[in-house]
Write the C-alpha cells for this entry.
Amino acid sequence: MPAAIATIPPVRARVMELIFETLRQYTRVSLQEKQGADVEVPAEWGGEYYPSYIPEGYEFDEVIGGTLVRNVYYQNLYGNLLLFSEYGDASSTRLDTENADVKFVMINGNPGMLVEKNGRSTVTWSENDRYFVLSADNMSGDSVMIIADSIVRIK
C-alpha cells in the first residue's frame, strides 16, 4: 500500500529592534529588522514568541497545543528532550519544586524561576500577557538560561 509523507517546511520570522537616532533638533525613533536575527519557526507553531537559539545536536520533533498553551519539542541523539511552552493568560501549570534547587533569575529583564532537579533544568518567566516554561533533560541551568534569553517575539 503506497504511503505519502508530508513535511511542513519551517518559516522564517523577522526580529525587529528599536532604533534611536539622535539628531540636532530631535531624536528619531523607528523599528528596523535586526540583521542576521531571523528565527526558523515550525510552520504549525502559531505562538507569539520563539527561541532564536537551539543548541547544536537538537532536532525539531513536534508542536502540540492549542489556544491556551503551545509546546514545541526538540530532541537530541541521546533522547534528551528540550521543551519550550508558551502559555496564555487564562492557563496554569505546575512545576515540581519538591527537594529541588530553586533560584530566582532574570530573563530579558523579567523575573523568573530556575528549577534544577534530577538532571532536568526548568525555567519559567512572563512577558506581556504570556508566560513561558523552558525545560531540558541533562542540561545545566546556565545552558537553559542561554536559550531562555534567546526568546524573541515573532508576531
Q: What stands out?
A: The longest helix spans residues 141-149.
